[in-house]
Amino acid sequence: xxxxxxxxxxxxxxxxxxxxxxxxxxxxxxxxxxxxxxxxxxxxxxxxxxxxxxxxxxxxxxxxxxxxxxxxxxxxxxxxxxxxxxxxxxxxxxxxxxxxxxxxxxxxxxxxxxxxxxxxxxxxxxxxxxxxxxxxxxxxxxxxxxxxxxxxxxxxxxxxxxxxxxxxxxxxxxxxxxxxxxxxxxxxxxxxxxxxxxxxxxxxxxxxxxxxxxxxxxxxxxxxxxxxxxxxxxxxxxxxxxxxxxxxxxxxxxxxxxxxxxxxxxxxxxxxxxxxxxxxxxxxxxxxxxxxxxxxxxxxxxxxxxxxxxxxxxxxxxxxxxxxxxxxxxxxxxxxxxxxxxxxxxxxxxxxxxxxxxxxxxxxxxxxxxxxxxxxxxxxxxxxxxxxxxxxxxxxxxxxxxxxxxxxxxxxxxxxxxxxxxxxxxxxxxxxxxxxxxxxxxxxxxxxxxxxxxxxxxxxxxxxxxxxxxxxxxxxxxxxxxxxxxxxxxxxxxxxxxxxxxxxxxxxxxxxxxxxxxxxxxxxxxxxxxxxxxxxxxxxxxxxxxxxxxxxxxxxxxxxxxxxxxxxxxxxxxxxxxxxxxxxxxxxxxxxxxxxxxxxxxxxxxxx
Length: 608
Fold this sequence. Notes:
Elements: H1 2-18, H2 22-36, E1 40-47, E2 54-58, H3 64-81, H4 85-93, H5 104-112, E3 116-124, E4 130-138, H6 146-177, H7 183-189, E5 195-201, E6 206-209, H8 211-217, H9 228-234, H10 237-251, E7 258-265, E8 271-283, E9 289-298, H11 300-322, E10 326-332, E11 338-343, H12 347-350, H13 355-358, H14 363-368, H15 371-387, E12 391-399, E13 403-415, E14 421-429, H16 431-445, H17 455-471, E15 477-484, H18 487-494, H19 496-513, E16 519-522, E17 527-533, H20 537-553, E18 556-558, E19 561-563, E20 567-573, H21 582-597, E21 603-605
Helix pairs in contact: 1-2, 1-6, 1-11, 2-6, 3-5, 6-7, 18-19, 19-20
């Protein structure tokens, strides 16, 4: 909400600064209020210069039929107001505007269209003259609140500036059209606008100020001279060099006009911010400037508001930049184009790019997302946009400096009036959490000593394999149980440390002999089980012999001692009739028992 308020006010100030049409600026102001207060709609009515007639200035969300009807009523009221101008001014100026009879026709018309007038706030000029009124409507009665009243009061200053600027422009245009060059006529053109006129004779170094200009700063005719060098003494010392440079650039015809915002000393010693604009209106044959005319406007209030807004923007930016992670706004347009409308400085760590780089090139983000995760990443955003549900997604990135990292995205989408989707969100580094999760997963499924799957994980794989052969007709799978012969003697003779090395040695041999789809696990102290996917008894027997041969050919060497270990193996085949993985494992275990009973270092095949 605060960011939308800042954006709305900044947009309004931008309209005012570049001299946008008044209707556009007033529409921006009304849109900003409605964005902050969804329960109300707004309209701005402007009072004509004679103070007798109202006309509609902006009502973007009201129905056109109502807008036309309300404009007709405003005109009718104006006719009535010819004889009651004093009453109108009293009612608009009064604290309780709604109480006057002047507004009853508006209220009645609103009710006919299902609307209730819940607030009317006068718009005043810098001289406290009524310029118009902001009317707030709601679709339910009793929607008036201090919150939206205060919000409207806050923006009436901007509306006042825009209206007065528009009045100034109209008066200046009128003066230009009629070729009115004298100070008196120019003063009349901007009378009551809060601006002042100055006329500088560059050749003689004289400058003449209108009464309006002097009033801005509190001076009288006797307080100031008409010398240009004296005028520079009133400019704030920190602004003087800049002002003189801008003037000189215009004298040298490097700019179309002179325009500067700076501080100037008032009669009481304080400083005001002013906007001073002017243009050279005559030059000699060599192009040297002779005369320049300009206008000065008091922008102290606007600068103060702008400074407060900028301070708020700086505060929010500072806060988001200090957060570990990336704060962002991401916008998807109806045509499919997408861009980041805001990213915090955290993007430098999250994606190793700068905010400036991604401003117009979102593909830089796509390039660092892990190829195996990119499809799901895009699909998750598409699903969030379609359902307007929060976006939660974890994915990997490959960064030039940090390498492989995990990222967690969390954002809330909303649909804008133009049909685009805007996400406000946060992306954090979850690499350490994912590493711990992987470690915990490994602890739960991997035997710590041999780094082979433990019994729990192995049995789960056996269940999957049993389901496969029951689902696919004509497939085979063999189950082998292996036991290291006389392992207790090895532990007793060489110690448990050597015994552990023997187990790891055997695990390495088994791992090297397995195919991609086979599974091996440590299911007991010195017992290992193997699932040979797609293998029958003959193939399993060949595999078992290779394991025995490898064990015989590669004894464990510790120091100068070679420790030879033999292995007994029992083989069984999974049947489609088996109700669980325990059945074939039990048969292979019984075959292993026979191998050990018959002398060890043998291979026995279970009889189904």
